[in-house]
Amino acid sequence: MRLLIPLAVLSFILASFASLSTEAPTGFDNKSNGVADDATHQADQTKFEAVEQLSDGLGPLYNAQSCRECHQSPVSGAASQVAELRLGHQGPEGHFRTPEIPIAHGAEVISGRSLMNDRAICPNAAFPNNEIQERVPETETIRTFRLSLSLLGDGFVEAVADQTLIDLARQQCKSSHRKICGQVLQVPIVEAPGQMSVGRFGWKDQHASLLSFAGDAYRNEMGITNRLQPDEVTKLCNTASEPNDTPGPDGLSDIDHFARFIRATKAPARDSQLASSAAAKKGYGLFDKIGCATCHIETLTTAAAGTKINGGTFTIPVALGSITFHPYGDFLMHDVGTGDGILQATREHYGDKVFQMMSGYLSKQDFESSRNKIRTAPLWGVRLRARLMHDGASLTLREAIVRHRGEAGHVSQRFEKLKREDQEAIVEFLKSL
Question: Is residue 258 part of a domain?
Fold first, then answer.
């Protein structure tokens, strides 16, 4: 018989445990959180900000030339206004199907991925007659934009134990009488073939490891193949040898530097002046009272230093071990009425080799039910975003709140029933995050 603990009791237990841990360092100063020394962190940041060229393997299809291009406001690693386009269609049996996008005047069809790249490297001087730009076919009627995510503080997120997120989902569902039930997805650790862990990165929780995440983004967003994602989307116009990302003199590839850079970033800092205001303090209490904190969990604590995660490929260092941080998010999948209908394309995120190896394990995950679910957006740093929700379609904090439906419908209704001054207090609180 499994013991179910009320969410309030679980929160008290987590808070008590947190009191024995160390607070995560915060700030926007481009300095390390302790995972690496500042000089190493700055060198990794230089790699993160590097602009890729054709000689580096850029493309042939891509969205950006640098990690920083999509993660840069107010500092490298943060979010931006950049959005990617995803699409697909519904098959005759009612299931989501990834698009089929013809390029090169129909000579080749790109399939097996929901992402459509906005840029291409040709025609160019070497290939004056090759035109490979992707365009949306009329058949692909399921379409959405997704904003780039902030990566700041994600080293702490990676270091949260799987069981912490699993228990949180269970207690959340129990305490809300099944009104709010976060979904946990077990996803492959690409650098540890055959191993899976609880997804927490990306709008669809498609990755649990920051190295897996980096390899995915490098290939799919910039077209730079690497040891985790060695296959090009298309060979047309491609002249660089594969994989494009190879180890440097230090034995590390670019994706290793990217992962270490993200792991060493500090958590987003609050606006201390606004946080201490009477309005923000009042809003904090109301935020919890009406139920926002059910999904936007204030505090999480990482596993102990020395714990092996990511299929045994990464050991949590002291700088990330037993650390308390305040993301205001649960990193679980929820249906809040804003889902885009896009199903996670497993082959795209994990590569052909891992997909084929783990197809049996992946089939046991209920990905189909996550079509209209989105990972809870952590609210740390939300004050620095002008466009809100996964698609950027909400332009004010109030709009974002009242847009919540589905599992959060009763919470947004409670917000709308508040006095105007109480609503404004919640908005002031959010502006402090």
Answer: yes
Output the CA–CA distances (angstroms, integers) from residue 421 to 280, 282, 323, 342, in the order listed.
12, 10, 36, 38
Over residues 31-66, the pLDDT tens digits come to: 999 999 999 999 999 999 999 999 999 999 999 999
Which of these, 348, 375, 355, 392, lies nearest to 115 by C-alpha position? 348
Cβ(209)–Cβ(191) below 8 Å? yes
Counts of helices then strands in the chain (DSSP H, E)? 13, 17
Tokens of residue 28, six digits: 């926007």
Q: Rounded CA gap, 171 and 173, in Å?
A: 5
The amino acid at 268: P
The string of DSSP letters for 356-371 reads HHHHHHHHTS-GGGGT
Q: Which two tokens stand for residue 344?
A: 């996670």
Residue 235 lies inside a defined structural domain of this protein:
yes
Asked whether the beta carbons of 143 and 136 are under 8 A apart, the reply is: yes
CA distance 162 to 160: 6
Specify if 1 maps to a domain: no
| 3-state secondary structure at position 412 | helix
Contacts of 255 (CB under 8 A, 6+ apart): 211, 214, 215, 218, 226, 227, 228, 245
CA distances from 133 to 140, 147, 220, 223, 378 (A): 16, 22, 15, 14, 34
Residue 355, classed as helix, strand or coil, is helix
For 377, the token pair is 């957006």
Expressed in percent and rounded to 5, the helix, strand and coil fractions of the chain are 35, 15, 50
Is residue 315 within 8 A of residue 303, CB to CB? The reply is no
User: Per-residue pLDDT tens for 208-231?
Assistant: 999 999 999 999 999 999 999 999
Of 71, 328, 295, 332, nearest in space to 200 by CA? 332
Q: At 388, phi and psi to the nearest 5?
A: -120, 165
Cα separation, 250 vs 300, whole angstroms: 34
Residues spanned by the domain of 360: 7-431
User: Nearest to residue 345, comparing CAs of 182, 197, 142, 154?
Assistant: 142
Q: How many structural domains are present in the chain?
A: 1
202 in a structural domain: yes
**pTM recorded for the entire structure:** 0.94
Helix (H, G, I), strand (E, B) or coil at 292: helix
